[in-house]
Design a protein that fits this description.
Strand order of the largest sheet: 1-3-2
Oligomer: single chain
Helix content: 55-70%
Number of strands: 3
Order of helices and strands: HHEHHHEEHHH
Distance between the termini: 37 Å
Number of helices: 8
């Protein structure tokens, strides 16, 4: 929000007149890709699983193609029995729950991709 009440009031008045903006001083806009990745990360961190067909339907993507690099990165975690990766789901196993943030980082597009899993933990 604006720091000064006069600026905030002016922004509110403008928002009411336009009906197409927000009365904020600054902010971030999120993309469809942000929403997609946020849904995946939220599913993993909150429920320890995602339903791949549901995500494909909601976002109109082919999960395996869209996330080929991420699925490749998860394969090492699957070998270590932290996750199960199947065509219809990704599920975090008991040992993986302790490393859930590292697992979710695979899907964070804003992190440095040069870092390996072993460097994260």
């Amino acid at each position: 929000n604006h720091k000064h009440i006069e600026d905030y009031s002016r922004a509110i008045d403008q928002h009411t007149a336009d009906r197409n903006g927000f009365a904020t001083a600054r902010g971030l806009s999120i993309t469809d890709e942000d929403r997609l990745r946020g849904t995946i990360i939220m599913g993993l961190i909150c429920h320890f699983r995602i339903d791949i067909p549901a995500i494909e339907m909601q976002f109109q993507i082919c999960f395996a193609k869209h996330f080929a690099n991420e699925l490749d990165a998860l394969s090492a975690m699957a070998r270590d029995r932290l996750v199960v990766v199947e065509p219809h789901k990704i599920e975090v196993l008991a040992a993986g729950r302790l490393l859930i943030r590292a697992i979710c980082m695979v899907f964070d597009q804003y992190l440095d991709r040069g870092k390996s899993f072993s460097k994260v933990i």
